[in-house]
């Protein structure tokens, strides 16, 4: 009985349980990706035009990206308390929007609706921050896979929630808003005491590689299954019982990863406490001496960077290491006898720990920021306007494309983290090269949307979804490599501001302005033809009851898609400049490339 109790306690402290719970939380945390399905309901119910809907979209993006408060609260409060704050924001924000859309309360003005959308979507930042902080601390040697998988499930949440909504089969379109308000809140409250740091650095096992492979396999199977379900529902009129069965299978897929902590805790002969006890706990004197030694060595290494000849970086790896080692030895000897005074650095170098203020004066940080702004901003514009884009091309069901882009977004995050990890670890090449490749895909995807060829919606969502998703696996990892992990939360939350900034320009100004202008032209043409065929009294009645502007045809997003394609090409150039500037950093971080 004592052994069973010990294993149960080990299960509750298992870092893989925390990771699986974070995956579940993230799978319903990305409610912002459902805005493409929510916006047509809000637009028709409240009589908004496309510019007003775009304003709501910008408020949603701001709520999703402005995570400074969430980062601060996660640092000063227990993670469960921060998660509770986020759950309350999600419930209040989207709950009030649902009450307004269903006319259960008076409809607030547009600015108040923007605030409600901001509050509701800002709850995501608490979920994301808690999940990333806890899991990165629990898996310090696997940041790339951890970030990619967690952000991937956040991107997949749109497809998951859409499928659950299809199972509910509510005739009221506003029920989707109600589900967004209540569903994630319930899940987060259920998991908020599990998602926490548990000293995962002391739980390293030889089986971790196999466990990650299993999680990757489940992710790919889950994405393939969801894609098959969405295509089946689009091509065949499924019965309600079949839809329920498919949704139950989806939930089983989500639950499967729990077998990892169960097997490790209850069916493994290894005792985690033994791993913890075997790790040495240095005495205070040793720790102080170690800190002093590391500080001195850090300063000496800084002097090496200052004193080494410029042509050393151009030498082969083995010869370069010999030259640097010899220079370092001379500096140590000279400092020891007082022949040279070692200078104290004024700031960190790339690859070391930066504060946010130190990073803000570095060109590499701004190259990464603006590359993210142009790439992810254009992708987010497609996500926010996907309902109107599909409707303008004659598609009646917009949910299929919202679900598809969520799946591609998911695969982009999983694949972006996986392949960029290969680039840096196997070839010691800058991670930003993977970012440039993702932006090339997005440029092609936007061009497809502009041309409106047959099947454009399917091809465009594929390319833009994968490229957009890859940004959020690559950029956080690159930021941690170039500017350190000590202040990663502040750096990451600042970089995420690029998302709403890009959306404000692309969606709030460019796309919505062009859409409304084209819709106004089409409305004027229809109005002129109506004047010729109807009596004046009827024309007056129609004008008074005129619905919000609606654009039809490929022209609606032609110019805006071309503009976004061009900006993605500019983002590629910025990423390649960053690659050129940071080659030596990755060579030093990851050593000689494998041949």
From TrEMBL:
Annotated NFD4 C-terminal domain ranges read 359-521
What keywords are annotated for this sequence in UniProt?
A: Membrane, Transmembrane, Transmembrane helix
Pfam families assigned to the protein according to its UniProt record, in alphabetical order: NFD4_C, Nodulin-like
Indicate the principal place this protein occupies in or around the cell.
Answer: membrane
Domain (Nodulin-like): give its ranges. 15-262
Location relative to the cell:
Membrane
Note the InterPro entries from the entry: MFS_trans_sf, NFD4_C, Nodulin-like
Is Transmembrane helix a UniProt keyword of this protein? yes
Q: Which SUPFAM superfamilies match?
A: MFS general substrate transporter
GO cellular component labels = membrane
The membrane topology of this protein is: Multi-pass membrane protein
The record lists the membrane-crossing segments as 16-36, 66-85, 146-168, 175-194, 214-232, 244-267, 363-380, 400-420, 432-451, 457-479, 491-515, 557-580
* Name of this protein: Nodulin-like domain-containing protein
Q: Which organism is it from?
A: Urochloa decumbens
Name the lineage.
Eukaryota, Viridiplantae, Streptophyta, Embryophyta, Tracheophyta
């Amino acid at each position: 009985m004592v052994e069973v109790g010990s294993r149960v306690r080990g299960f509750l402290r298992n870092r893989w349980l925390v990771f699986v719970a974070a995956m579940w939380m993230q799978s319903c945390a990305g409610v912002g990706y459902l805005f493409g399905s929510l916006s047509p309901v809000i637009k028709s119910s409240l009589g908004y035009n496309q510019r007003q809907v775009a304003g709501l979209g910008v408020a949603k993006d701001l709520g999703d990206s402005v995570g400074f408060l969430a980062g601060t609260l996660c640092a000063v409060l227990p993670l469960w308390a921060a998660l509770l704050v986020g759950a309350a924001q999600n419930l209040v924000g989207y709950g009030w929007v649902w009450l307004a859309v269903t006319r259960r309360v008076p409809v607030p003005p547009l600015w108040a609706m923007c605030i409600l959308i901001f509050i509701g979507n800002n709850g995501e930042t608490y979920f994301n921050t808690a999940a990333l902080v806890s899991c990165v601390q629990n898996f310090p040697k696997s940041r790339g896979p951890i970030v990619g998988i967690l952000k991937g499930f956040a991107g997949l949440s749109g497809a998951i929630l859409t499928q659950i909504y299809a199972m509910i089969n509510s005739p009221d379109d506003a029920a989707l808003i109600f589900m967004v308000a209540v569903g994630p809140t319930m899940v987060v409250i259920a998991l908020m005491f599990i998602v926490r740091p548990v000293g995962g650095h002391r739980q390293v096992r030889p089986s971790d590689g196999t466990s990650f492979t299993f999680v990757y396999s489940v992710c790919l199977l889950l994405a393939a299954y969801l894609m098959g379900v969405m295509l089946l529902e689009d091509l065949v009129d499924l019965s309600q019982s079949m839809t329920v069965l498919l949704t139950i299978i989806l939930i089983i897929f989500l639950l499967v990863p729990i077998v990892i902590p169960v097997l490790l805790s209850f069916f493994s002969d290894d005792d985690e406490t033994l791993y913890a006890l075997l790790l040495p706990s240095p005495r205070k004197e040793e720790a102080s001496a170690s800190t002093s030694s590391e500080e001195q060595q850090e300063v000496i290494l800084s002097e090496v960077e200052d004193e080494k000849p410029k042509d050393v970086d151009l030498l082969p790896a083995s010869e370069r290491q010999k030259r640097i080692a010899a220079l370092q030895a001379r500096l140590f000897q000279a400092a020891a006898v007082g022949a040279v005074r070692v200078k104290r650095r004024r700031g960190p170098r790339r690859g070391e720990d930066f504060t946010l203020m130190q990073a803000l004066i570095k060109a590499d940080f701004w190259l990464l920021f603006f590359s993210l702004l142009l790439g992810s901003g254009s992708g987010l514009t497609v996500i926010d306007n996907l309902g109107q884009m599909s409707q303008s091309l004659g598609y009646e069901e917009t949910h299929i494309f919202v679900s598809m882009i969520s799946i591609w977004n998911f695969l982009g995050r999983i694949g972006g983290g996986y392949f960029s990890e290969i680039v840096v670890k196997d070839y010691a090449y800058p991670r930003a090269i993977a970012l440039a490749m993702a932006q090339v895909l997005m440029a092609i995807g936007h061009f497809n949307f502009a041309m409106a060829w047959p099947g454009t919606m399917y091809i465009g969502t594929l390319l833009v979804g994968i490229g957009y998703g890859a940004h959020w696996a690559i950029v956080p990892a690159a930021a941690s490599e170039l500017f350190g992990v000590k202040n990663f939360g502040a750096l990451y939350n600042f970089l995420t501001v690029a998302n709403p900034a890009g959306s404000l320009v692309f969606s709030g100004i460019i796309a919505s302005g062009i859409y409304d202008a084209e819709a106004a032209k089409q409305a004027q043409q229809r109005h002129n033809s109506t004047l010729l065929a109807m009596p004046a009294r009827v024309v007056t009645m129609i004008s008074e009851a005129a619905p919000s502007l609606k654009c039809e045809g490929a022209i609606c997003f032609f110019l805006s898609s071309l503009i976004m394609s061009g900006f993605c090409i500019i983002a590629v150039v910025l990423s390649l400049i960053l690659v050129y500037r940071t080659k030596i950093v990755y060579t030093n971080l990851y050593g000689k490339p494998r041949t």
